[in-house]
Every structure is written in C-alpha cells, then in structure tokens.
Amino acid sequence: MSDLFDDPKPGQNAPEFTVSELSGEVKRTLEGTFGRIRVKGEVGRVFKARSGHLYYDIKDDRSVLACTTWKGQVSSLSVVPEEGLEVVVTGRLTAFGAQSKYNMNVDEVAVAGQGALMALLEKRKKQLEAEGLFAPERKTPLPYLPQIIGVVTSPSGAVIRDILHRLRDRFPRKVLVWPVAVQGQNCAPEVARAIEGFNRLTPGGALPRPDLIIVARGGGSIEDLWGFNEEIVARAAAASQIPLISAVGHETDTTLIDFVSDRRAPTPTAAAELAVPVRLELMAWAETQGARLTRAAGQAVQQRRQRLNDLARALPKPDTLLETPRQRLDRISDRLPGALISGVQRRRVHLSETAASLRPSTLRQLVQGRRDRLQNLSSRLTLRPIQREITARKDALGRLAQRLDAAQSLRLDRQRQNLTAAGRQLEILSYKATLERGYAVVRSGAEILTTRAAAAKAGPLQIEFADGMLDLEEGIADPGSQTVAAKPSGGGQGSLF
C-alpha cells in the first residue's frame, strides 16, 4: 500500500502516442505554425514521375528542402524548375508521416532576380542553337505583298492599333487578330497555340489562312517579356510553315522568338512596315516602270524604222530590177514564131518518113506472128492440173464428211443415253412408283386432298391406284360408319372398306 503514496518516477505522467498519432500531430503543428510560406534557394535534382507529379529539391549551402508539385499544379507554374536555377517557391509546409519526413507542396515558382533569368535564357538559347533552330538557311523569305496578315497580340493594347494604323497608311490588307495574353503564366501557351492555330487554317476556307504572321508586344521588363522566352513559344515559331515576324518589346529588347523567327522587327510598327510596301511608292514605281516601258518600246520602233530606211537605200529601184528580164522577154518573143514553124516542119518530115515504111503486108505478118504465138501458149495450157486439184479437194471433202458423220453419231448416242438416264430418274421420282408400293392419291376434282377433314367437306372423290381410278359417289361417311359406296372408273361397282 505504501507504493500508492510514493512519488512517480520522472516521465511516468507523460501521455503515450501511437506512431500515426505522433505523425499527425507533427503534421498539424507544421501546417499550423508555418501556413503558406515563400522559400528562396537553388533548384537541385528534378524528377518528373510517370503520374505527372514533379519532385525536386531547393537547397542552399547548408540544407536541402524537398518540394512536391502535384500533376494538377504543374500546368499553372509560371516557371518550370530546372536544375541550377535560383528561384523563390511559394506553398505550404507539410509532413509525410509514412517516412517521418517533411516537405513543401509548391504551387508557384518564380525566378529569383534578373541574373538567374538571364542565366536560364542563355541556357535555353544555347540548347535551341545547338538544335539548328537559329540557322539562316531554314528561315523563309517574307511574301512581297501578303493578302492576309495574322497578328498574335493582345486585342486591347496599343500594339494592335499601331499595326493597323501603319498598315492602313502603307497598303491596306486584311488582318486576322488572334487575341492572347502577352505576359503572365498564360502568355506562353496561348502564343504557341495561336501560331499553331494559324498554321492549321485551310487556305481559301471560311476563315482563310494568313500569308504572314506577326507576333507583337510592347516594351517591358525581362519578367514581363519572359513568356516569349519560353521553349514552347520558340519551337512553335520554328515549326511555323507561314513566314513569321517577331516584334516583341522595343529595339533593345531581345527574346528567344527573335532568333527563331524568319524576320525580327525592332518594334510592332516596324513589323507592319516590313510586312507590306508603301502603296503610293509602289504605284509611283509602277507608273515609272510603265513610262520606261512605253519609252523603250517607242525607241525600239524608231530604231527599227531607221534601220529599215537605211537598208532600203541600198536596194536598187524596181524599174532597174525589171529592165533585164523585160529585154530577155522581148528577144524570146521575137524568136518564138520562127521556132514554131521550124518545129512543125521537122515533125511533118519525120511523119512522112515513117508512113512510107507502113504496108498492108507488114501488118499481116505482124498479126500472123502474134496469132502463132497465141496458139503455142494455148496448147501448153491443159486441164490436168485443175482436174488434179479438184480430185484432191473432193477427197478431202469426203474425209471431212466421214469425220462429221462419226462425230454426229457419237453425239446422238450420248444424248440418247442421257435421255434414257433422265427418263429412268423421272420414273423413280414419279408418284406412279409410289402408287405401285400400295399408296393412293385422293382427289376432289382438280384438288388433291391430304387430310380426312378436307375429304369430309369435299364432294365426290376420285382415288387413284396403281392400276386405275376409283370414283366415290357419296364422299366420306360419318366417323361411325364402316363403309363407303364406290364406283370403279371402269364402269363396275364396288365398295371400299
């Protein structure tokens, strides 16, 4: 009993906790004490799980803080943590009791100072340059006079008004504006989607595809322009099939999109000047070229006319060219009558000489010679070859007739056999064969009866057996009757039981 009044040993009055209770108490103490905090440090290792969660460390020269950004929070981060980057993370401190560890759930990441931003920008620039995205040979030349210009910028800022005003002054064109956020965490994804969206439009469609894209924004600090330094914006601009002009910031501002675009403009107004020529200057140039063309055509015609006149002076006069042919014609016309008379006389003398040699005896000898030759030829022509050919053709025709008779006989035998087989098959399938096996067919006029009920309703019946027909004059009796009167088709009378 004395033990009840003894003093307790030190620590015996302390409460007992389970491990889970202690972990929960530590977690509540951490979250209640610190709440939402901001921590500055350098990003250590970064690991992105297959589930989409992001795990990384924030460290200084003496300690390391484990950080976690869940999958649903990653898309809202303005800056994705990269190893070696100095950042300021915002979130709440919590504990992971299963492993007796505490960490920080981060939902916002910001770069700590311009020095860190410039280091990150230089790192991305070297990476994209190593991939060849800055190469001059991959840049597309701008169209001289685009029909449709797509502008990616904020619809409420002064930039779009400056571009439209400058286009209206120089050369009015159709403009499609894709509204985007030009700073903040939504800037980079919206600008990238706008560039990709313009490229997906169908040429000549309901919403036509632009011939040129201008990505524009006014001036600002490096933090304000940081959305145009994001990798997704640079890659979207590099992948654009439509020529792209970057006009982000003032002349001294430089972003990653400036290096990958097809042309960089120092200001949005300068981008509009690069996009289209001055209409008045173009019209003046066209008029000047038209005047030069007209003047050149007139000078060319004048030079050719002068050349033609010079060549015409070297040619002789037409009368001079015809003098010699005219003289030759006169001489030939004077000689023509005498030549005709002498020619006729020569031909008359030749005819007289030839007619003198023609006598009737000469003609008779010629005719007799031709007659003898004809008789010799007719004696050589006999009918034996023709007769031999006729005989040979007749023999061949006889052989063909014999072959035709044999083939026809063979074919008739085959058809006869097929017909006999078909008749035999028809007899097998005919109902006559069934009648010979003891069956009968009951008819009422032209109708065949198959049931007793149908026969009871019908009038006089005819029953066909294998050896003839049997007529029933009174039809089927009541079910209680045992006999039915029948009259054979041959004229006799009988009964059917």
Spans of at least 5 consecutive residues with low confidence: 1-5, 480-497
Beta-strand segment tally: 16
Q: Count of helices?
A: 14
Strand residues, percent: 15-25%
Largest sheet: 6 strands, antiparallel
Order of helices and strands: HEEEHEEHEHEHEHEHEHHHHHHEEHEEEE
Average per-residue pLDDT, rounded, comes to 83
Q: Bin the helical content.
A: 40-55%
Task: Give the terminus-to-terminus CA distance.
Answer: 126 Å
Derived from helix and strand composition plus strand pairing, the structural class reads alpha/beta
Shape: flat
Walk across the major sheet and give the strand order. Answer: 12-11-13-14-15-16
How big is the Rg? 61 Å
What does this entry look like structurally?
With 497 residues, the protein is an alpha/beta fold. A 6-stranded antiparallel β-sheet has the order 12-11-13-14-15-16. α4 runs parallel beside α8 and α5 runs parallel beside α6. The longest helix is centred in the last third of the chain and has 46 residues. The termini are far apart.
Could you give a quick summary of the protein structure above?
With 497 residues, the chain is an alpha/beta fold. The protein is built from 14 helices and 16 strands.
Which terms would index this structure?
single chain, about 500 residues, alpha/beta, 14 helices, about 50% helix, disordered C terminus
